Amino acid sequence: MEIQPTGNKIEILDLKIEPSLQRASKDNFSELLTASMEKELSPSKSVINNPIEYIVKPGDSLWKIGRKLFNKDPYQIAKENGLSKPNLIQPGQKLIIYPSPPKAAPTLENGEVTASWYGADHHNKVTASGQRFDMNKNTLAHKSLPFGTKVRLVNPENGKTAEGVVNDRGPYIKGREVDTSYALAKQLGFVRKGVTKLNIEII
User: pLDDT per residue over 121-133, tens digit each?
Assistant: First the structure.
């Protein structure tokens, strides 16, 4: 225990003395105390950055492995493993994963959204941005993102990804947050389903 004066106050600092320090001689007490304090203050080594060998299981997609299991960008996993066709991984395939540290909670513009799509009924009509809607281009409607914002969309059900540009406002049906063009819906594999959950990320 140490009594330390600070102005008109006296603070009592409670130091934990390890057994090794209690047995130390006067000569080496200072060295042992310093080493003990450094041990207490130094951050513990984490295994989070050590590479992990992962064997692809039936039903796995690169998106699921990256986002759900390792909190890592699937594109980075593909790059690190030299995958030219990341959508075609096979059960039993070995991947080397370099996990990323936890990310901050997503903003309102990033994360899971409920998406629908629109096509022929609106083709060539003027959008909220002033551009004419082309159902065969990768565009989407969003309620608040600025026009021209480029986003990446991921369908967690099948791992398919696509990129698009915001050029319209909507959707205006309760419970829906994004309206993609027919082209995007086709690439993401939910044309027949009509409405689905997607993950959106500003890029």
Answer: 999 999 999 999 9
